[in-house]
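TA notes. Do not distribute before section.
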Amino acid sequence: MDLASAVMLADMIPTGFHGAELADIQYGDKVCVIGIGPVGLMSVAAAALRGASDLYAVGSRKICADVAREYGATEIIDYHNGDIAEQVLELTNGKGVDKVIIAGGTSEETFVEAVKMVKAGGRIGNVNYLGSGDVIIPRVEWGCGMGHKTIAGGLMYGGRLRMEKLASLITTGRLDPSKLITHKFNGFEHIEEALMLMKDKPRDLIKPVVII
């Protein structure tokens, strides 16, 4: 296995796939992935592998949108174009989606949008770390507490068996994590340069890798 692809098994792949597991995506589900950084892109790939039909990816950077389509997204939702829930509802003729994966956004706004766009009886899987603010659940869209809209969140699973199974997706060609790698460096002296890319987040960045 290519080393640069293999290093994605440490975090990007299992976290993104865990989002699809938390959302319990089934064949034919309409799915929305909020946030298409590297983790969100892996959630898109996982949702497609688990059988999602319409697969909406929320993001604005072209490089991420292009890769999201390669991983199976059928529509890109740009939050600059308005309320993302309204855009999803319009695309689904007001019905909403069956499942939502939250892989980015702010805690205050994102959960409101997710609850609005998911159908009654739907499920939201969150793998976005909420470092500040409060999670807000809109009462009416929550079905006044009677909508059976479930939110699940938690740390990704680890362990040898899980890593072996995820690795087999790469070695059999089911998953190509190299699409995440936009900047590749050779040599320990480039560590700081790669870290600064992660801090500054230029628009052409998805993930940098340093080969030692």
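Switch to the second chain here.
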Amino acid sequence: MDEDLFWQLIAQLDWAKLGDDEAVCAPVVVALAARPEAAIHGFEEILAQKLFALDTEAHARQTGENAYVGPEEYFSVDAFLYARCCVVANGQEFYERVRRDPTQMPADVDFEALLGIAGAAFEARTGGELEFTPSVSYETFANAAGWPR
């Protein structure tokens, strides 16, 4: 899978179904499930790369009420991951703008459901569970260069 196809799939999220995350993701799951298993792995790999790139302290400081304020204060690593998912889910142009300028990071939003697309597509295609490990982790603090100490 290449990035163009990845972003074409992301563009198929059905925001008319906002409030029902499974329904929002359904067109992408269906389209991805129609592709070979390697494409599903490729989707998960590119998603991990995009989320990893946004895993920076500068981005975390812009997320609103639960923003990162320092190592001594509570910070929800999950909320930050889900906020990064929202950035990717809003498409390539928005993603690139936020990646370049952390002050454009949206506040108090999330879209955790993005993380389940590849698994749902794999299950729809094969009946099995996706067992794929991307080359980078999208978990918060995984991008050591983004969190200088």
